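Translate sequence into structure tokens.
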Amino acid sequence: MMTTIYDAFKTQVEARPEALAVMDERETLTYAQLDALATMIADGFPVEAPSKVGIVMSHSVKMIATILAALKTGAAYVPAEPTFPKERIKYMMQDCDFVVTDEGIRKGTATSARVSDLAYILYTSGTTGRPKGVMVTNKNVLHYVRAFRHEFNTQPGDRMLQHSVCSFDIFVEEVFTTLLSGATLCIPSDETKADIHRLMVYIERNQVTMLSGFPYLLLEMNRLERIPSCLRLLISGGDVIRGKYIDHLRTQNVMIYNTYGPSETTVCASYFRVDNAEPLADGTFSIGKAVLGTNIEILDEDLKPVKDGEAGEICIFGDGISLGYSGDVPENANFTTMPDSRRVYRSGDLGYVMPDGNLAFLHRKDKQVMIMGKRVESDEVENVLCEEREVETAVVCPQTDTDGLSYLVAYVVPRTKGFSLSSLKRSLADRLTSFMIPELFVMMPSLPMTPNGKVDRKALPQVRKEGRLYAA
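Result follows.
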């Protein structure tokens, strides 16, 4: 039985050495050539048996080979985009034995002990203001590759687009479900990824069959008259997907999936096919059922099961549960053990089981605010707003005035030039009580995005309320 990612990759190398493994816009490598390059890079590492290898490289064939080189030595890789802030990169790389960049290798000063079976560390936002590193094992990744292949039947002949930044686990999905299944990884340039029309040309020219990304990428594709016919599968993850994001895509011959899962449980914990399903009442889709090798239960604060249909915390069990966070951080308490000895990750998300057995995602536990003495879920308001015909997309953010009272701000991307705010407010009043309607509206040509592809809420214009005065 294969025990490491590199073992599984080597199996593909031996089975199909001349098959195309990876390509960028400058070069292509077969499985045998990729393995040879990974070996050469590993032989040049300044530490014979590294524990953690930092990788800060532009996306290319060489970057993929460097990741495999780290895994071949038994090290975990720690990725960061070269465009990240310097202090953030420095913090992420502080425990690495050395860092590989496009310019070469930089020695580190880490003396950390080896963590058995660790494959990579992905840094996510932390409550302390510093990013926290999720430690994922080879076993976790192999579990996810099996689950992905079980659902999507990845095989030689498939071509996966590499679109995600390296610090988000969609990247893990793109790279390892492809290379451990004998398929081909296609890496477009940053310039190509930045232009949806150029990206579609790239997909058509290289006959890409599979694409995984945030729902906002699918929204961009939804605006196009057509998408390349070579695409057989579109996967949305990392944020809520809405029916209006794919209403045109659903008319084309392509499977579309909604996925759910925190990085802490290795990429995705559940899947749901949406191209042949109807949205829920709030315009979003179910998150489906647990992937192969995973169980999901809806539990209360005491980790007791709630009744069918009742809301509770989405708790995840199974082979995807990671080792936790590197270092001593408060969030490690989210990983715990049940009385029956099963290890569980408490997601902090609320959901419920629908009558058909599929799961519905509601919102984060910590996103309730009190407005005029009443509890309001900003996600609920956001869902209603996004369902409006005049709205292409929107986000709703709670704010606090100088008296400590909460209010809501809506950031709206209009769908048409004839957008009317007064008309929108009248329509919202039919579905929301008065205290739930955002107090302030900000019209946006588009929503700012993080390098990971999510809405960058910190980059939204800051709108502050003080007394009866409003300031932007």
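Note: The radius of gyration is 23 Å.
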